[in-house]
Each structure stands twice: as C-alpha cells, then as structure tokens.
Design a protein that fits this description.
single chain; alpha/beta; Rossmann fold; 5-stranded parallel sheet; binds flavin-adenine dinucleotide; 306 residues; 7-stranded parallel sheet; 2 domains; globular
C-alpha cells in the first residue's frame, strides 16, 4: 500500500515520518515552503514544494497537493489533523473521489486491509473502521503519534518542485497573529492552562509568569474563553485545540470530559485544584490540592531557582 504524507515544520514531523514508515510498504513525503527544514536521513522520497511564503492559502495548498496526488497516485494521503488541513483536504478528497477520515487516533494495516480507529462521543467510545474505499485521506490526531519508533535510515532523495503563485478568488489582506510572541498551544512541549478557578481575566498574568518560568505556552478551559477572559485560540479541548505536550499543568480546571478529550495526548498531567474530588485528579499524574493563588506563586519561586 502506498502513502503520500504531508510533513509540516511542526515538532511532530519526525514522529509522523517514523509512524508512516512503520505502517506502509511504500511511502513518500512532501512539504510546502520548508526549504530550511531539517530532514532526517530517511530512505523514502521527499518532495519539497518551494513556495516562498509557507503560510497557509487554501487555493495554493489544494493545487499543490492535488498535483502531487495525481503524480503519485497514493492509496492513502496522510496528514496531521489541524485547522488548515481540515479546511482544504475534505474538498480535495471529494474531487479525487477519495474517502475522508478526520480525528483518527490509530491507523493499522492487517492482511493488506486498512483499519482506522477514531473516538466517538467525545472519547467515551472508539470506533474501529475497516476502510473499504481507497484511495482515502486520513487526518491523524497528533496525540496519536507514538514517541519512539525507529525509522529506516538511508540517503534522502529530495526532489525540489518550483511553485509559481497564480490568481485566486481568495486574497489574503492581512495576517492577524494575536499570539505572535507567545508560544502556541498546538505545538508546545509544555502548557500551563487556567480555568474558572483562576477567578478573573487579570489572574492569567500569574499563569503567564509560571509559563515564562518553564518556557511553556498558556492554554485555557472553554469556561474562561466563553467568559471572554482569553481568546479562543487558547482553548484546549473538544471544541478547542487537542494538545499533546510533554507536560500539562491544569490550574483551577475541574476536568470536564470535553476538556479531558483535548489533553489525552499529554504525557504528564499536573492538576492544581482546591476541590480534592475534582475529576481532573483522576486523569492526573500529579495532583496538588489547594488554592491556585498560593500554589502557583510558590511554584514560580521554586522553579525560578532551577
Ligand atoms: C459541546 C461542548 C463542548 C465543549 N468543549 C469544551 C472544550 O473544548 N474545552 C473545555 O475546557 N470545555 C469545553 N466544554 C465545557 C465543559 O463542559 C466545562 O464546562 C468546562 O471545561 C469547565 O471549565 P472549568 O474547568 O474552567 O470551570 P469549572 O467547571 O467551573 O471548574 C473550575 C474549577 O476550579 C476550581 N477552583 C476554584 N477556585 C479555585 C482556586 N482558588 N484554587 C484552585 N482551584 C479552584 C474548582 O474546584 C473547579 O474544579 C464544552 C461543553 C460542551 C457542552
């Protein structure tokens, strides 16, 4: 079975390479605009589409991936599940008459058949599906990527593909980067998240301080996003971002199922909550029962010494 895999310059790309190589008999990779991207010494073919500006544009991305798809004719087009891929890949799969699966937590090959697993009902159940219609487009949840897997070493066969911008009905007027100087939760290795237990918007400054101390990004529960304390791009969870950091510190977050779905890919979860029976503690590796306004300043003080 042949796979065409979209590699983006995120912290997950090494993991995705290893994952794809371990699954498919034949695999080729492509990137868009990442001329400086460091490639591991893999044996599989790599297509590097040299687009000057690597930022997302639905028309350009659709055209680039469509051309590569026609050229390579894969059985599976594999990419990570995030907002821009969710934006243009469903349309592309329609145009190629390929089946489409998002939020996939596992891809498996057995007796030449392709199986996928995906969560249902906010993770309460998971469905095992046999893919009957190929080709197919699969969006894999980054939290599904295993941490350690050996990859097939070899001499990279990189093929550069020039890209010429063309007229499109969509024009980018301006790019709003509200979190330009801050770390983004979708790629952060450490996240400090705040919930309603932080009391008010101003108290997120305390979380910013803790995040700064340990080089983490700041996230939030939906309750505080809905209250207008922080912008939506900081929301972790089912209707926010699914995160997979090495360390997730939940401060004043109760641990509703919709929030827990978003952090199931985290390696270590630390919860700070004054209610010892808060559900977040059931999913935490470490729990601190107490007031965030006492514990967080103490943590900042101790961690600043390190
Ligand atoms: C369709 C749907 C989708 C949703 N999607 C999401 C989503 O993507 N992400 C998400 O987060 N939620 C989501 N929700 C909302 C979710 O159900 C919860 O309402 C929300 O997560 C609660 O946020 P919270 O934990 O901040 O607030 P609360 O549930 O109010 O919890 C606050 C916690 O803070 C603790 N606390 C209070 N004061 C202190 C203090 N001083 N020190 C320490 N602890 C303190 C309390 O003990 C409590 O446990 C969704 C809901 C629905 C219906």
């Amino acid at each position: 079975m042949k796979a065409l895999v979209f590699i983006e310059s995120s912290s997950d790309y090494f993991k995705l390479i290893r994952y794809a190589q371990s699954l498919f008999e034949e695999v080729c990779f492509f990137t868009i605009g990442s001329e400086d991207m460091l490639w591991p010494d893999i044996s599989s073919p790599i297509f590097r589409v040299l687009k000057k500006d690597s930022s997302y544009h639905p028309c350009y991305f659709s055209k680039i991936v469509s051309d590569l798809y026609d050229q390579e004719k894969p059985d599976v087009l594999l990419a990570l599940d995030h907002s821009s891929n969710r934006d243009f890949l469903p349309g592309l799969s329609m145009s190629k008459k390929a089946s489409f699966f998002s939020d996939v937590s596992e891809v498996r090959l057995q007796d030449h058949s392709l199986f996928i697993q995906k969560p249902l009902y906010t993770g309460k159940l998971s469905a095992q599906l046999k893919v009957l219609q190929k080709p197919c487009v699969i969006l894999l949840n980054p939290s599904a990527l295993p941490l350690t897997q050996k990859y097939e070493k070899g001499t990279p066969q990189i093929q550069d593909i020039p890209f010429e911008p063309f007229d499109t009905p969509i024009k980018k007027i301006t790019r709003v980067q509200s979190s330009q100087v801050k770390k983004q939760i979708n790629s952060a290795e450490k996240i400090v998240s705040g919930g309603r237990g932080m009391g008010e918007a101003k108290n997120f400054e305390l979380l910013e301080k803790l995040a700064e101390t340990i080089s983490a990004a700041v996230g939030a529960s939906r309750a505080v996003v809905d209250a207008g304390w922080v912008p939506h791009h900081m929301q972790v969870g089912q209707t926010g971002t699914l995160v997979s950091p090495k360390l997730y510190i939940a401060c004043g977050i109760s641990g509703a199922i919709q929030h827990l779905v978003g952090i199931q890919g985290a390696q270590v979860i630390v919860a700070i909550n004054k209610d010892a029976s808060a559900p977040i503690f059931k999913k935490s590796n470490y729990g601190l029962v107490g007031d965030v306004f006492e514990i967080i300043p103490a943590l900042i003080k101790e961690l600043s010494k390190a």
